[in-house]
Amino acid sequence: MDDDTPPFFYVMNYASEAEGDVIDMVSGNPDWEPPEALREGLREYADAETDQFQYPPSVGLRELREEIAKRRGVDISQVIITNGAGEANHLAMAGGLEAVDGNEIILADPVYPYYDGRTSLLDAEKTLIPVDKDGHLNPETVHKRASEETAVIVVNSPNNPMGVTYDGDAIEQLLGVAEEYDALLVSDEVYDHFDYSGRFTSALSFDSPNRIVTNSFSKSMAVTGWRVGYAIFPREDRPAPYNELVDSARTRHMLTNVAISRPAQASVLRALRETDPSYYEAVREQMVERIDRFTSALDAAGAEYTEPEGSFYVMARFPGLPGTMENIEMLIDEAGVAGMPGEAFGDSRSDWMRFALVSPRVEEAAQRLAEFFE
């Protein structure tokens, strides 16, 4: 494998070129229908006046920002619509490094590779903290490792790849570490609609200038290709330097993207206003069923695995088959199932493999794995 090729792309390409049928359990692309109101909004937008096809406000459509602000209990001035949660996290991490002293970003290990890559892109010092045996990042361990050099602490809840969910006590403690060292907690909550434990607590539940919350509609509305996300920054009446974060992010966002797709924003807004909670409940129920079927097959294969508290990923460790890229290739070729190597997410779970359960063929994939390991 070329060292410059991201592991996700390499595995997807390898699977697409493999002989025979391969079930994709690599990508986090939802396979279910988006809200009907979203489709209706897009169809209606096609007949809009031509002025509606021009640049929207750089920070996002005002009506969408108002809707998000109302739902999240913040002021509209704190909300920036971004190119998915990816840009939201970039703005948050870059802003933290720029605004506060220190050049260290603390990440959980295993880590979503884009956080790791972004840390390198920003030329920051990276500290990977292994999660506990249950998959959670321990706030006490973070506190011991943090220092005056710590600028940003990144937490993802519900989590990719471990599937854990952080409760209010954990988030409050992590926020306390950020406050103690004048750092910034970046809380990526993109899987907030996929909490099966009932423990998920947003960082917005705590009144602090030391946090930025990021999110998107990619997963919750099954529209990963639309790239509509958002970041919520500290209020501008907060003490410096936290009050400067939102203005700095507006400038960086405008220079990078100019603006985000107007039709996509308008359709998401309509879906937000018109989609009944039963839509999200049905998707969660479907995911719980898939998790049950998949983990039952992992039991049959004699695997150790994570039981997701949230999101839609399972990490598994098979006897005698560590999570290397070579073994991922073997599963593709011989079992017809494509997952991700644990080594792509860091060192602490490098002998595991990660599987995304966003496929209608989850049960078939599970059966293939069980038969392979018989």
From TrEMBL:
<feature type="domain" description="Aminotransferase class I/classII large">
    <location>
        <begin position="21"/>
        <end position="368"/>
    </location>
</feature>
<keyword id="KW-0663">Pyridoxal phosphate</keyword>
<keyword id="KW-0032">Aminotransferase</keyword>
<dbReference type="GO" id="GO:0008483">
    <property type="term" value="F:transaminase activity"/>
</dbReference>
<comment type="similarity">
    <text>Belongs to the class-I pyridoxal-phosphate-dependent aminotransferase family.</text>
</comment>
<keyword id="KW-0808">Transferase</keyword>
<dbReference type="Pfam" id="PF00155">
    <property type="entry name" value="Aminotran_1_2"/>
</dbReference>
<dbReference type="InterPro" id="IPR015421">
    <property type="entry name" value="PyrdxlP-dep_Trfase_major"/>
</dbReference>
<dbReference type="InterPro" id="IPR015424">
    <property type="entry name" value="PyrdxlP-dep_Trfase"/>
</dbReference>
<dbReference type="InterPro" id="IPR050596">
    <property type="entry name" value="AspAT/PAT-like"/>
</dbReference>
<protein>
    <recommendedName>
        <fullName>Aminotransferase</fullName>
        <ecNumber>2.6.1.-</ecNumber>
    </recommendedName>
</protein>
<dbReference type="InterPro" id="IPR004839">
    <property type="entry name" value="Aminotransferase_I/II_large"/>
</dbReference>
<dbReference type="InterPro" id="IPR004838">
    <property type="entry name" value="NHTrfase_class1_PyrdxlP-BS"/>
</dbReference>
<comment type="subunit">
    <text>Homodimer.</text>
</comment>
